[in-house]
Design brief:
The protein is mostly beta strands. Helix content is 2%, strand content 46%. It contains two helices and 74 strands. Strands 2, 5, 7, 8, 9, 10, 12, 16 and 18 form a nine-stranded mixed β-sheet that branches. Strands 11, 13, 14, 15 and 17 form a five-stranded antiparallel β-sheet that branches.
Length: 964
């Protein structure tokens, strides 16, 4: 491998000196300026460049140029134009040191090693290079070629490597923000597998990869422009991307790297011509014409001649007008643009006419009838193409007036007439055509003014709910016109209480509230209908509540009459009347007291509205004694102080009730707790102070007693037995059960048990406990175990190996109905000991069914290690000595077959190929023959595809040495 350090010690001086020599000092001349008089003349442009071989030539603009990419071209000019000539060229100095290898093997870096020699010459080995004037001198298989420049000079000759190594590198100093031209010449010295070169600068690809020609000694140039950006140095490297062993041999020469310079110069072609004719346009009214034109930049001034008609005047430099003309009069003009140049003036003739009077059609539309006092709106429609504006004089027969500033189209105006009138238009003036007279005005319009309708003044009335008299609505209005129509507009309809034909309302049929009724009278033509309304208020009756029926009980205490629903407030007055019974305590009160049974009536009067309402209440005598019904619980199991007495119900009497156990201390609770065994009396008092009592005795309870049964479970399988509580004697429900004396629950059964003795515990509602024992006879339980009988009892195997499994069953064959496996091993039908050969880690499950229909299962997991065992030799000696005469593949059982086996020589020629054959068999190997002859000793390459029993394919390749 060559190092740069020594080579560049001498190069440093050259590089430093070269930086100052990279000036762009060539000369560029675009030629002399020229002038033309007529558009379209052809002018020769003769650019001259002092340097040689420009990279690019460009004239701008390109319009009218015959060859914008050449130094010499012709220009067809239609206007004054400045043409700029730009030339880009490489500086004459090559920044690459020893780029033509004239100085030999110095000045560059490479990953290749200099040729060490061999049977084929200096470059016998791959990955080596040499400096030579002829590639054949370095390798007898290379073509004889001359160098790129003189055919007798030096070049760099390369025997391509099988790895992507750098062929050539050199670092040069550059100017930042500049462009550089890089080029190199490449020729193949062997036609097979031409080199594929990638050029790099500062580690980045320069252009795309470059393929050498398959024709030997055919020098081809690689060229790219490189922008330096912020870089101050450029490390230029050439890498061969081709790694083919055979062929791939080439030469390099004349590597160049130069600054790109840009030069510019300009030439101007001037066009001198008369000013262009002005673009003249007309504008007109009915009394004048006017010509105008945009300013012409080349004109020194303008002249206007009136060829027919009277003369006019300049309005400004580019406008001329003639006034005082009649409508539809034609005037001829000549407009001239004056010039100081040699090409003379230019003139334009044009004829203009005054406008004809516009056609104007006027129509007026409005109501034929109007209600007195209303505003009448009329529409005046002017139909014309004229811009106006217009003035129209209107005479409504009262006081004429003028509408000014009108535009074409519809315009509304209004008046409020005090009486009937006739409408006429008397004059029309168009401001844009003041000399025009219009006589086609519309005919007169007659309008009648009518008196409005009167529905009278609004009215109102009120009545208490339930009033039988009818309201006559017409009597509640004032000053109305007859013949109107009545409608109900109430928020809540009055329904059948309203008779629109008779105009009556009956309050007796209405709920309290406000009711509204409208009276509508139609107006004459032009006048809207008029309406009025009558409000009828139905007043609510007072709320009256004499109270619920009551009883005078055992204590004889007076009762209070009157309920909470009675209306209250200062506007209400109360009046009680005794229908049966004795006098009340305060008959003017809302809530008097009654001391004797009877029937009492209450009347409530609203003093503000006069509305009243009444209600009655009955008071009877109630002397009924309550009767108790009791029950008792003994509490805990024979424990004193834990019993209770409950009042289950009370017959007769009036609630609420109070209870006592001693006849003195009464309370609302119907239960007495913390009692012991004995006799008790419970007392009761109702809301009427009537009393009652009942006796009851408390007797202690007994502990619960269990009766059990057991089932060994389905098919006597372990873990499937059941214990059931058949019944419980004594105790109080509900019961809780436990198998360990700690965790209690409501279920009387215990599942998933095996054979053995058990104790079942019970607790009743009074916490009384009991227990009983029972034994489960497991019997002959069906059982199976699954073990490995090979591999030392281990279940870890390598991919491709087999393992013997054994199902151990506690029954003889006569008692077994079937044995099934999942997944099913091959060739195992109802067997106990199958061989398995899984391709991946697999769990095998065996299910055994006996002749009684009972089942047992067991599982075992076989772990498979993905280990690929194969061996491919790297040498063999096909000399028929009985030892190592055949090259073939050795493999473990996990390799199913050899998909392909190919062997190639160092030039890439295939000398052996075979497909789809088994491993470990010399009959399917290579005996070293190619086309019936033994191949030469040396290095070869092999590629093999190996298929696993899982279907996966492994690709293996390497080197193979044939030894004689």
């Amino acid at each position: 491998m060559k190092k740069e350090l020594i080579a560049f010690m001498g190069l440093i001086v050259l590089t430093t000196a070269s930086l100052s020599a990279q000036n762009c000092n060539e000369n560029l001349d675009a030629g002399a300026d020229a002038a033309i008089c007529q558009p379209g003349e052809v002018v020769n442009l003769n650019g001259v460049f002092s340097g040689s071989g420009p990279l690019s030539v460009a004239w701008t603009p390109t319009t009218g140029l015959s060859s914008p990419g050449s130094l010499q071209t012709t220009a067809t000019a239609n206007a004054t134009t400045t043409y700029t000539l730009t030339v880009r060229a490489a500086a004459p100095q090559n920044l690459i040191f020893n780029g033509d290898f004239t100085l030999g093997d110095i000045g560059f870096y490479t990953d290749y090693s200099y040729g060490t020699g061999g049977p084929n010459g200096l470059l016998h080995n791959v990955g080596q290079y040499a400096i030579s004037t002829n590639p054949r001198n370095t390798h007898q298989g290379f073509s004889p070629c001359g160098d790129h420049t003189t055919t007798t000079g030096n070049m760099l000759v390369v025997n391509g490597n099988t790895v992507r190594d750098t062929v050539w590198c050199q670092t040069v100093s550059v100017q930042p923000n500049a462009e550089y031209a890089f080029s190199a010449w490449v020729a193949s010295v062997v036609g097979q597998n031409p080199a594929n070169l990638q050029f790099y600068i500062n580690g980045l690809p320069l252009g795309t990869s470059f393929n050498a020609s398959s024709t030997t000694c055919d020098w081809q140039r690689f060229f790219e422009i490189w922008p330096s950006g912020s870089a101050s140095t450029a490390r230029i490297c050439i890498v061969n991307l081709n790694t083919q062993l055979s062929g791939n041999d080439f030469a390099l020469d004349d590597i160049g790297f130069s600054l790109v310079c840009e030069y510019q110069d300009s030439v101007t072609i001037t066009l001198s011509e008369p000013p262009p004719p002005p673009t003249v346009s007309c504008s007109s009214t009915t009394g004048s014409v006017q010509v105008s034109w945009p300013a012409v930049a080349e004109a020194a001034g303008y002249d206007v001649s009136v060829l027919t008609g009277q003369a006019g005047t300049f309005v400004n430099d580019t406008t001329y007008r003639v006034d005082g003309l009649a409508p539809e009069t034609t005037v001829d003009f000549e407009v001239t643009a004056l010039s100081n140049g040699p090409c003379g003036n230019t003139s334009v003739n044009i004829s203009c006419s005054t406008d004809a009077c516009p056609e104007v059609a006027v129509a007026i539309d409005g109501p034929q009838t109007v209600c007195l006092g209303d505003e009448a709106v009329f529409t005046l429609d002017i139909n014309t193409a004229s811009m106006g504006p217009f003035s129209i004089t209107v005479d409504p027969g009262l006081l004429p007036f003028t509408l000014d500033g009108l535009e074409a189209g519809a315009t509304d105006f209004s008046i409020t007439p005090p009486q009937s009138f006739t409408f006429s238009l008397t004059a029309l003036v168009d401001s844009s055509a003041p000399n025009c007279i219009f006589s086609n005005l519309p005919a007169n319009l007659s309008v009648t003014v009518n008196q409005p309708a009167n529905a009278g003044q609004d009215g109102q009335a009120e009545a208490c709910a339930g009033t039988a008299a009818l309201f006559q609505l017409q009597d509640l209005l004032a000053g109305e016109d007859p013949g109107g129509v009545w409608t109900d507009i109430s928020a809540v309809s009055a329904g059948g209480a309203f008779d629109p034909a008779a105009a009556t309302v009956g309050p007796a049929q209405l709920a309290p509230g406000d009711y509204l009724f409208r009276y509508v009278v139609d107006g004459p033509a032009g006048c809207p209908p008029d309406s009025s309304q009558v409000e009828v208020e139905v007043l609510p009756l007072p709320s009256v509540d004499a109270g619920q029926p009551q009883s005078i009980g055992c204590d004889g205490v007076a009762v209070t009459l009157g309920g909470p629903a009675t209306s209250t407030g200062p506007e209400y007055r109360y009046l009680w009347e005794v229908l049966e019974g004795a006098a009340l305590s305060d008959p003017a009160s809302a809530t008097p007291e009654a001391q004797t049974p009877g029937i009492y009536a209450l009347t409530v009067i609203n003093e503000q509205t006069g509305c009243r309402a009444g209600d009655t209440v009955a008071v009877d005598e109630q002397v009924t004694f309550p009767e108790l019904f009791l029950s008792a619980g003994a509490g805990g199991c024979f424990a004193p102080g834990e019993a209770a007495i409950s009042v289950d119900s009370v017959a007769n009497g009036t609630g609420p009730f109070l209870y006592s156990l001693d006849g003195e201390d009464y309370g609302p609770s119907p239960q007495f707790d913390n009692l012991s065994e004995g006799n008790y009396t419970v007392f009761v008092i109702d809301a009427n102070q009537c009393e009652g009592s009942a006796d009851i005795a408390i007797e202690a309870g007994a502990a619960p007693e269990l009766f059990l049964s057991a089932s060994a479970g389905d098919c006597f399988a372990a873990g499937e037995a059941v214990i059931s509580v058949d019944s419980v004697v004594n105790g109080t429900e509900p019961f809780l059960y436990s198998l360990d004396g700690e965790d209690y629950g409501p279920s009387p059964q215990f599942f998933n048990l095996t054979g053995g003795s058990y104790t079942v515990h019970v607790i009743d509602a009074n916490q009384c406990e009991g227990s009983a024992e029972i034994t489960i006879d497991a019997g002959a339980l069906l059982d199976v175990q699954l073990v490995a009988r090979s591999n030392g009892g281990k279940t870890d195997i390598t991919l491709g190996d087999s393992l013997l499994l054994d199902a151990i069953i506690n029954r003889d064959s006569a008692g077994i109905d079937s044995i099934s496996w999942f997944p099913a091993p091959p060739g195992c039908d109802n067997c106990r000991r199958p061989f398995v050969r899984p391709e991946r880690t697999t769990t095998y499950t065996v299910t055994v069914t006996d002749t009684g229909g009972c089942r047992a299962t067991a599982s075992i997991t076989v772990f498979v290690e993905q280990k690929f065992r194969y061996f491919i030799p790297n040498a063999f000696s096909p000399n028929e000595d009985g030892r190592n005469d055949v090259f073939f593949v050795y493999a473990g059982p996990e390799i199913r077959r050899i998909v392909t086996l190919r062997i190639l020589d160092r030039w890439g020629n295939m000398v052996y190929s075979r497909e789809d054959f088994p491993p470990n068999d010399p009959d399917f190997g290579w005996d070293g023959l190619f086309r019936g002859e033994l191949v030469p000793a040396g290095a070869y390459a092999f590629v093999a595809e190996l298929e696993l029993i899982t279907g996966q394919v492994i690709l293996e390749n390497g080197a193979l040495t044939v030894v004689h």
